Amino acid sequence: MKPAPFDYVRAASLDEALSALHEAGDEARVIAGGQSLVPMLNMRLARPSVLVDVMRIGELARIEHRKGMITIGAGVRQAQLERWAPLAGTLPLVASMMPWVGHAQTRSRGTVCGSFAHADPSAELPLALLALEGEVHLRSKKARRVLPAADFFLGMMATAAQPGEMVEAIGLPAHGIGTGTAFAEVARRHGDFAIVACAAIARPGGAIRLAVGGVADTPQAIALPDPSDPDFDDRLNEFAWALNARDDLHASARYRRDLVRSLGRRTVEEAVSCRS
Amino acid sequence: MPKLNRDTRTDVTFTLNGKKVTARSEPRLLLTDLLRHELGATGTHVGCEHGVCGACTVRIDGEPARACLTLAAQAEGADIQTVEGLEPEPGGMSPLQAAFREHFALQCGFCTAGILISLKALFDRKPGASEQEIREQLSGHLCRCTGYTPIVRAALAAQAQMREEEPRNA
Ligand code: FES
Ligand code: FES
């Protein structure tokens, strides 16, 4: 339960971090809060030969709200976002999820972007990114690119980030007036892995989007009709089957499908009821 | 840029319970092992070493955190408080510790150091935390022998006493 040896670079600037990542290629991993990476190091599920610590880079620790977009830098800890005063007004969906993200003792260190880079299929923050159709800002020594959430998550703990690239920030569109959002999760306890997590968004124009985490290898989203529509339950049921739920230690596939149907309907109804 | 070589032990300096300390560590050393093996501060316990049990919880810059999920190198320059830093004078007990004894909130004591640190951090930030908030904070800890009811009782009693002593926090 001790990490295998690695070199450790404490980057003082973004340039330094990107150069170190560039040099080491796929042997390197970024360490930010370390709340997902260090368990993997301890269990030797990850054995990088270089760790690049980005937490001393001041410019990455910022949350910015500009032109309807909230940008969260790679150095922003989850607790910092949780206590960011405008959160409830600008990202109510994220605000309602925060108590479910790990525990207070891990949110204190874990970063928001780290949760995306780790891409655990049952994690809440990636679900928010997909539900809100956010974007991921990737940066390497030579280039930068911006990917929509759906193109970033490739599979269980697999993302589109290439060797030498790091998540520099993520962008989430600020809450639109009149939009309703809702979140619900079933887990053994707050902070445990989600068995099923649902996030719903109801736009004033009538569009409804439901995103589900904890079932497929990546969070998945679907557009749905109004819950009063006779097709609603069939569409949700098809979606529940299409997620290819599996049996595991925590729950059976059938239970997960049941949860997608019941929790899915409930979150959509709640989102619709707070739409105006 | 400071690059620490995997085989080289370098100095890490931070504040531990109000005193500046320096210890030698290689990059892969965990903060738990630095505290216990290099500095002899064995009040911090190690259970699971992957962030699940909370036995290793210490405060890093005021926030409760898993020392087993923190590399010693990440603690450079930080302000760290461990259970040893709770006693008001050598051999004495803080109100929180006294309440744990009074209410039988520990049996084997393995989980206790981490829980005390988490509760202290909660009450410092939010002296009037509700029972619900106390329970949420405790959800980051596993106790396998006492059970949580006496722990919650002790936390509430300590909170009441601390607020009596320092009414401006009320
Ligand atoms: S030893 Fe750190 S959480 Fe269990
Ligand atoms: S007192 Fe024994 S584990 Fe909590």
From TrEMBL, chain A:
Keyword Flavoprotein part of the UniProt annotation: yes
The UniProt entry, under InterPro entries, shows:
CO_DH_flav_C (IPR005107), CO_DH_flav_C_dom_sf (IPR036683), Diverse_Substr_Oxidored (IPR051312), FAD-bd_PCMH (IPR016166), FAD-bd_PCMH-like_sf (IPR036318), FAD-bd_PCMH_sub1 (IPR016167), FAD-bd_PCMH_sub2 (IPR016169), Mopterin_DH_FAD-bd (IPR002346)
GO-annotated molecular function = FAD binding; oxidoreductase activity
Q: Show the SMART domains listed in the entry.
A: CO_deh_flav_C (SM01092)
Matches recorded under SUPFAM superfamilies: CO dehydrogenase flavoprotein C-terminal domain-like, FAD-binding/transporter-associated domain-like
Matching Gene3D superfamilies: 3.30.465.10, CO dehydrogenase flavoprotein, C-terminal domain, Uridine Diphospho-n-acetylenolpyruvylglucosamine Reductase, domain 2
Name the keywords, alphabetized: FAD, Flavoprotein, Oxidoreductase
Q: Pinpoint the FAD-binding PCMH-type domain residues.
A: 1-177
The family database entries (PANTHER family) matched by this protein are listed as: XANTHINE DEHYDROGENASE SUBUNIT C-RELATED
- Please identify the protein, giving its name as recorded: FAD-binding protein
Organism, by scientific name, is Jiella pacifica
UniProtKB/TrEMBL annotation, chain B:
Q: Which InterPro entries match?
A: 2Fe-2S-bd, 2Fe-2S-bd_dom_sf, 2Fe-2S_ferredoxin-like_sf, 2Fe-2S_ferredoxin-type, 2Fe2S_fd_BS, Beta-grasp_dom_sf, Diverse_Oxidoreductases
Does the entry feature the keyword Isomerase, yes or no? no
Span of the secretion signal? none
* Protein name listed in UniProt: 2Fe-2S iron-sulfur cluster binding domain-containing protein
What's a Gene Ontology MF term here?
2 iron, 2 sulfur cluster binding
Q: Kindly list the organism's lineage.
A: Bacteria, Pseudomonadati, Pseudomonadota, Alphaproteobacteria, Hyphomicrobiales
Alphabetized Gene3D superfamilies for the sequence = 3.10.20.30, [2Fe-2S]-binding domain
Q: Superkingdom of this entry's organism?
A: Bacteria
Entry-linked Pfam families: Fer2, Fer2_2
* Keywords, comma-separated and alphabetical: 2Fe-2S, Iron, Iron-sulfur, Metal-binding, Oxidoreductase
Segments forming domain 2Fe-2S ferredoxin-type: 10-86
